[in-house]
Specification:
The protein is mainly α. It contains four helices and no strands. The chain has one domain (2-116): Methane Monooxygenase Hydroxylase, Chain G, domain 1.
């Protein structure tokens, strides 16, 4: 059984080795002429204000996670919607009920998020 994983292991080793070799080659053969302008922080030609270690509000991360969570809903619903009319009648009813339960679970989660105020920017 372990013999079937040998090609995957070989590809993994090759991919990691290729990445390491390319990074080393670029640092060995690439031009390196640092100066004050190249080493400065670039922000559209404006001098940077503050430090790079400022803390962001957790709301940025919450909105990003919620966007991904509800975006995955579309990833699951789109193939179902594309194949829905090709189902047999019994499977059509079962799949429709399953999707309704899925949407209700997501709706409960969405209502919970709204109730907790995760989308408020005050």
């Amino acid at each position: 059984m372990i013999d079937s994983y040998i090609p995957i292991f070989i590809i993994f080793v090759f991919a990691v080795g290729f990445g390491i070799v390319m990074v080393k080659f670029s640092s060995l053969f690439g031009p390196s002429r640092p100066n004050k302008e190249k080493l400065s922080t670039y922000e559209s030609g404006i001098d940077p204000v503050g430090t790079a270690h400022e803390r962001f509000s957790i709301k940025f991360y919450m909105v990003a996670v919620l966007f991904i969570l509800f975006d995955i809903e579309v990833v699951f619903l789109y193939p179902w919607a594309a194949a829905f009319l090709n189902f047999e009648p019994v499977k059509m009813v079962y799949s429709f009920i399953s999707v309704i339960v899925f949407i209700i679970i997501l709706l409960v989660g969405y209502l919970y998020v709204i109730k907790k105020g995760a989308l408020k920017w005050d």
